[in-house]
Amino acid sequence: MGIIVLSIQGLPPKGGKFDGVAMYSNGKPIVAIASSKKGPAWLAFYLAHELGHISLEHVKPDGGMCVDADLANAGVDEDTEEQEANGFALELLTGEATGITFESSSLKAPEVGKAALKFASKADPKIDPGVVVLSYCKSTGYWGVAKKALEIVGQSEGGHEKVRQVLLQHLDSKRISESEARFLAATCHLPL
């Protein structure tokens, strides 16, 4: 769709951390994901959230950016644009602007993982089981189960690699300058 998506890892520790940023450069939309989280479901949410900022015109082609420092711990005191971007992300990933709601808020990680796999397999349209896990954690506030439950559904690693693979599939290395190639190799760990 013409939106450049970068996975950035290894930022200098003193430079400040962020999960995602949405911006325009030379009139082209760009999303950068720099979360230390590695699971595909986490990165899918961050990507969907940043796409929300672009789609909802929180950032415009003539400048500006939305930098999201800690999306996992965002609270009810978020500004309207952050709430809208969260709603966009949840609807994109689950079909519901509020995400998936759950009756029980006291499940342990193995129960959440098994329930997520079962729910995801029956959902129409299909919903990623890792997204189901994160929806449970967000709706209950019980984030302590996320890491183990994501391991159970096979979603604890590999998110940044998937983003890089897609970028490499769509990147025309003949059209980028040597300095751009060095930048992408250093920040996104691309083999250019």
Q: Give the termini distance in whole angstroms.
A: 23 Å
The assembly state of the depicted protein chains is single chain
Radius of gyration over all CA atoms, rounded = 17 Å
Strand content: 5-15%
Order of helices and strands: EEEHEHHHHHH
The largest β sheet comes out as: 4 strands, mixed
Give start-end ranges of low-pLDDT stretches: none
Topology:
Blueprint: E1 4-7, E2 20-25, E3 28-33, H1 40-55, E4 65-68, H2 80-94, H3 109-122, H4 129-140, H5 146-152, H6 159-170, H7 178-188
Parallel strand pairs: 1-3
Antiparallel strand pairs: 2-3, 2-4
Structure overview:
This protein has 192 residues and is α+β, with helices and mostly antiparallel strands. It has two domains: 1-95 and 158-192, no CATH class; 100-155, no CATH class. The protein is built from seven helices and four strands, in the order βββαβαααααα. The chain has helices spanning 40-55, 80-94, 109-122, 129-140, 146-152, 159-170, 178-188; strands spanning 4-7, 20-25, 28-33, 65-68. The protein has a four-stranded mixed beta sheet with strand order 1-3-2-4. It is globular, with a radius of gyration of 17 Å. The mean pLDDT is 86.
